[in-house]
Design goal:
It is built from 14 helices and no strands. It is mainly α. The protein starts with 27 loop residues before the first helix and ends with a helix.
């Protein structure tokens, strides 16, 4: 994902104050954050992995899914919000359609490889029932339901959400063009309605409660990402670093960390401020989860240090490289998750196997990101040479 900001044209009147401008170079923070989210999703989807004790879901209400959807909204404005003005309506709609098609193909690959792999694996060794919904275990009657998103298997449900949100982007864009605050108000009202009545959801043949990521609720997080991107473009600068707001976000994140940390799992005294509080609901994006991810986003996107770290440090660049190829990394990572779970189920989850599985999986993802980045650079070089 490319985040670019163009400096304002120099004023002809020196007496007028210059508009604060962001460097015209890429803002790698969005790519780096998305890279972190993708790697955490890879780790979190392996229940037996010891590494998932160290991901953000253990130190806050939100997890990598919230970060992924928020940044998807942010990137959508950069790719398509400006595209309507730059390329025209028809061309931009074609681009959105092509991206949705790519996401759909990625979803189909994951579903069919997962089902076939589990069926073959269990012919040699027992596989727990929760690896595959019973409706998918036999025959082909499920195929049309999966392809029409009437059935969403576990761990394969975030790309369909992304397709729905991206498909609805043109409508939200029109609302924003008319009145940005009204667009966010309508989006927020729908989110609140779902929180009041979680039964409002898309149907899911595999789950009577509907889609695990309720699109009617999660669209608000996507919309907030879109609006944040549009606001940053309009300002020509990062979000202002307001000290009271920074402190407020920090205090909330400390509370979130204390409340969400798995104290019992680590055999530590329980330091939760509210011991009887239930875990904030993920399916319809409860307010506590929404506040958590927005606090993180503000602290990062208002920080010059975070900008410099993502752009100049080796670690920041490696993570940004992963984030720039989100679809490929997510598809491969999800399939690696499946094989890791199958390996742990068959051969145990001892320390040696933990190291082998996690190091192998992460190495494959980093290598894939590096290869994709080199291929993209070569393509751009060839295209430039032809001009």
């Amino acid at each position: 994902m490319t985040v670019q900001h163009h400096p304002p044209v120099a004023s002809q009147q020196p007496s007028l104050p210059a508009k604060p401008a962001v460097s015209s170079s890429r803002d790698h923070r969005i790519d780096a954050m998305r890279g972190v989210a993708l790697l955490m999703m890879f780790v979190d989807h392996i229940p037996q992995s010891l590494l998932n004790r160290f991901t953000m879901r253990n130190v806050g209400f939100a997890d990598a899914a919230e970060v992924f959807v928020l940044l998807a909204g942010y990137a959508s404005w950069l790719a398509y919000g400006r595209g309507f003005r730059k390329y025209g309506t028809v061309e931009c709609l074609k681009r959105i359609y092509r991206r949705c098609l790519q996401l759909y193909i990625g979803q189909a690959i994951m579903v069919f490889v997962s089902v076939i792999s589990i069926r073959l694996w269990r012919s040699y060794t027992p596989v727990p029932v929760d690896f595959l919904e019973p409706e998918l275990a036999h025959g082909l009657s499920w195929v049309w339901r999966v392809m029409m998103f009437d059935a969403l298997p576990s761990n394969l449900n975030i790309l369909p959400l992304y397709i729905v949100l991206l498909g609805g982007f043109p409508v939200f864009y029109l609302l924003m063009r008319a009145q940005r605050s009204l667009a966010l108000l309508l989006s927020g009202a729908l989110w609140m309605l779902v929180n009041l009545d979680p039964g409002l959801n898309f149907p899911n043949w595999l789950d009577p409660d509907g889609w695990y990521f309720n699109p009617l609720a999660w669209q608000f997080l996507f919309a907030l990402g879109v609006a944040a991107s549009a606001q940053t473009e309009q300002r020509g600068a990062d979000f202002p670093r307001i000290r009271p707001l920074v402190w407020l976000c920090g205090i909330y994140l400390v509370f979130s960390a204390l409340q969400a940390f798995p104290w019992a799992q680590w055999h530590l005294p329980d330091l939760r401020p509210f011991g009887q509080m239930t875990t904030p609901e993920k399916s319809w994006l409860s307010p506590l989860r929404l506040l958590d991810v927005m606090a993180i986003f503000y602290l990062v996107q208002s920080s010059n240090k975070a900008r410099a770290w993502a752009a100049q440090s080796v670690t920041g660049q490696i993570l940004a490289r992963v984030g720039r190829h989100s679809l490929e990394i997510f598809v491969v990572g999800t399939l690696l998750d499946l094989y890791a779970r199958l390996v742990f189920n068959t051969f145990g989850d001892g320390l040696l196997l933990q190291v082998l599985v996690n190091v192998t999986g992460l190495t494959i993802l980093f290598a894939l990101a590096a290869w994709l980045d080199k291929r993209r650079s070569r393509s751009k070089h060839v295209a430039t040479a032809k001009l």
